[in-house]
Design a protein that fits this description.
alpha/beta; eight-stranded mixed β-sheet; 8 strands; 42% helix
Length: 281
Amino acid sequence: MLKNLVLIMLLFQTIISSAQVKTAKDINYAGNAEVANTLNIFYKKDDIKDKPVLIFIHGGSWSSGKKETYWWLGRNFAHKGVVTVIINYPLAPNAQYEKMADDCALAVKWVQENISNYTASGNKIFVMGHSAGAHLGELINADPKYFKHAGIENPIKGMILNDPFGLDMHEYLTTAEKDDFYFDFLRTFTDKPEVWKLASPLDYVNNIKNSHLLFYGGKTYGAIRIQTPRLYEKLKANKVPVEIKEIKGKSHVPMISQMIFGGNDLYKDILEFIEKFSKIR
């Protein structure tokens, strides 16, 4: 009975939000015909023309996931006044992490150059990622080579990392159990420890200057519970604006799936973060 009530409430919320939010689907951001290089945009077409924009990079162990899964995230944020872009990127085994990161940087470039057509400002770009998507978002933010490849300066105002996996891939792959996940990750990061270091955002932390909002679950994977606070401490030591919140009782997937509900507390934290740092030039 309770489950049915929750589903009815979610459907009702979706119908209300859908009536006010427009969607532009399957836009290619890389100048090719690849589905892996497409994005969806969720926005309200109103008189406000300089809204902030949130780019969301999905998780899925670098080998699964797609933008369509997160339509509810796009609609919820757009309904709250934040234009939201949900992107695809190439996945393993067809691509390794550098190709994924390069293409995520291209998506950010496309948004910077085109998002004014969807009532948002290219000067108010925020990037949010969950799990592997948080890794890729922080990697392009911290290692300057990716935006250099894209031909732009880093335009990201702030990073929102939701249960980020792989902030230190070298540490994880050096110590992890040799299970199916481990061998799956090798398709993305090779079996070379020197590559694992190059793929670790924490190795570039001194390059990071923009604001950060970090979430991690109280019941998530051990590597996330170790490395997310470590990123927080390093950013804080470098006097980078950073906030961190442990979400009690949440494991890895529920850290993002809880946001299906537009009244989830994470929205309040994220919206306050975006509003605060949108005003800083």
